[in-house]
Design brief:
4-stranded mixed beta sheet, alpha/beta, Rossmann fold, MutS, DNA mismatch repair protein, Chain A, domain 3, 3 domains, 6-stranded mixed beta sheet, 562 residues, 58% helix, 23 helices
């Protein structure tokens, strides 16, 4: 048996081994993936949210901002980034960006919300088919610090480099290797030189297009996995699957042999490791990318359509998973009002998604709510709870309560404000501008405004605060808006009795402890415990005594003793 024959046999056996190893690795990967998806159902899919990751997630929404969205002030007030993190159960970067966009755009069309609800229910009840759908999404994966939509959007202007140059690099190495068979003493050195040149050239050019390599691999996976998504037989998804297949067909040439760029899914397999060396030496992935860039320029619209379909499906799977991890939730009952009349809100056992052991509260009202109580009694948390769930109701059609009913609203808040040192604006200026935007929206909007205000005009003196805040809140109510306002100014309870219902939170001050039950009660507060709290902290008894006498004098005479 000659040497050539032996080498041929060894090569054939090696190929068979690599094929078998690849099939085994793929099956093992799928088994691990399915187990992970089943075990993680009902849990958030991402643990880390750096600044760069959040900016990438927000990119899609930032390109589609509209009037009526949940604005930046409200997002900051409600800590919506943290809220988003707890409902983000998506499997793809596309889904992450799409879900964030949904959370910022409360819907006022009941038919759109009903369609979302139907899809969520179908996914939730589909069992193993749901896991298969999740697996198809999970293979696409997530790209940290990269907005998929940003790169999809710019696909028409991608410039990868000179395709002919990379072809020449690969051919030079092939020719030099072949010439080694003729004159090895010369062309071995030439081959070594070409290898070194190709390696250096490869890394230099790859560094310039590294993000595009990742995104092209992602697009290729997306296109391939879209076919798997379309094959999952879940009733109600057919119209999305048909649109998805139509778009992916136009990108068939783009994804053909895309493994050259993307590699395998097993991560670290022998076959993929060998391919890495071939890519470096012959530039084959850079050559393929030039072809892929050309295809993307022709099919940018189809690419954006694929983004929207995948994003929608993945975000609905995420909502279904989020619901599965909740102890209690309900589908909201939403209705349209006639103009700005008939504004109502009713809920039972409402709670906040970020509080581990929440105290649940209930309310039924047809006008604004004024909430009084001491610091840390629960006022701010309660209005944030209502605000977050109002957004949930009109976005993911899920409310953390036993039941929830309200009309459609535009949702705004004015709570966690701060001085703007860059524009040389005091807290008071920032605050009145924030309140003005709510009044402007209440005046122009065709549907009611639902607003949340914590400590109205806290940035100014008591006299002007009460005079101005009472008129601002009265005007908000007269414009047909529903307002939840928290305040320490008990005078507002009496001044606004004709426009707001009064509620309060209480606490019990014991010898060295203050106990809050965080339960909402009807009426305004009749307790004042701020001075008693001074004693708990250890203030001089004489200071506490004089403070109590001053407060009592004011209550009896209506003026402060000088």
């Amino acid at each position: 048996m000659d040497t050539t024959y032996k080498i041929t046999i060894i090569a054939i056996l090696l190929v068979i081994f690599l094929i078998c190893k690849g099939v085994y690795d793929e099956r093992k990967y799928r088994h691990r993936l399915y187990k992970h998806l089943k075990d993680s159902w009902g849990k958030p899919s991402r643990k880390e949210y750096t600044y760069d990751i959040m900016e990438a997630i927000k990119y899609y929404y930032n390109q589609s901002r509209q009037d009526g969205d949940v604005d930046d002030i409200t997002c900051n007030d409600l800590n919506m980034d943290a809220v988003y993190a707890c409902i983000n159960h998506t499997q793809t970067s596309i889904g992450e960006e799409y879900l964030y966009m949904l959370l910022r755009k409360p819907c006022t069309d009941i038919s759109v919300l009903k369609e979302r609800e139907d899809i969520i229910n179908l996914i939730d009840t589909s069992g193993d088919k749901r896991t298969k759908l999740q697996a198809a999404l999970a293979v696409m994966g997530k790209l940290d610090k990269i907005s998929v939509y940003q790169y999809f959007e710019k696909a028409g202007s991608v410039e990868i480099g000179n395709k002919l140059y990379h072809i020449c690099c690969g051919l030079a190495l092939v020719i030099s290797i072949l010439l080694c068979l003729i004159k090895p003493e010369v062309f071995v050195l030439v081959s070594v030189f070409v290898i070194i040149y190709n390696v250096l050239s490869y890394y230099k050019n790859k560094a310039k297009v590294d993000h595009y390599i990742k995104i092209f691999a992602f697009v290729a996976r997306t296109r391939i996995q879209s076919e798997d998504i379309a094959k999952v037989e879940i009733d109600g998804l057919s119209k999305y699957q048909e649109r998805l297949l139509k778009c992916t067909k136009s990108l068939k040439k783009f994804s053909k042999n895309s493994w050259i760029v993307s590699g395998s899914n097993m991560g670290g397999s022998i076959a993929d490791s060998l391919m890495d060396y071939i890519r470096i030496l012959f530039h084959i992935d850079l050559i393929k990318m030039c072809n892929m860039a050309h295809e993307l320029k022709k099919h940018k619209d189809e690419l954006i359509e694929i983004f929207n379909i995948i994003g929608y499906i993945d975000s609905m799977v995420s909502v279904a998973s989020f619901r599965a991890g909740l102890k209690s939730w309900c589908v909201p009952k939403l209705y349209n009002t006639t103009g700005k009349k008939d504004i109502k809100m009713e809920f039972t056992d409402l709670y906040h998604p970020l509080i581990e052991n929440p105290v649940k509260n209930s309310i039924k009202t047809d006008r604004g709510i004024l909430i009084t109580g001491s610091n840390a009694s629960g006022k701010s948390v309660f209005i944030k709870t209502v605000a977050v769930n109002a957004i949930f109701a009109q976005t993911i059609h899920t409310v953390l309560a036993k039941n929830y009913k309200s009309c459609f609203y535009h949702i705004y808040s004015s709570m966690a404000l701060r001085d703007d040192i860059f524009n040389s604006e005091s807290y008071y200026i920032v605050e009145i501008k924030s309140l003005k935007r709510i009044l402007d929206k209440a005046l122009e909007a065709k549907i009611p405004v639902l607003c949340f205000i914590d400590e109205v005009l806290r940035g100014t003196n008591t006299l002007e605060r009460i005079a101005s805040s009472s008129e601002i809140l009265r005007q908000i109510a007269k414009l047909g808006s529903m307002c939840f306002a928290a305040t320490h100014d008990l005078e507002l309870s009496k001044i606004l009795a004709g426009y707001f219902n009064n509620y309060h939170f209480e606490e019990t001050v014991e010898e060295n402890n203050v106990v809050f039950d965080y339960k909402l009660r009807e009426g305004s507060t009749n307790t004042r415990n701020a001075i008693k709290l001074l004693n708990m902290i250890g203030y001089d008894p004489s200071v506490i005594l004089r403070a109590e006498r001053a407060a009592q004098y004011f209550l009896e005479n209506g003026v402060w003793k000088v």
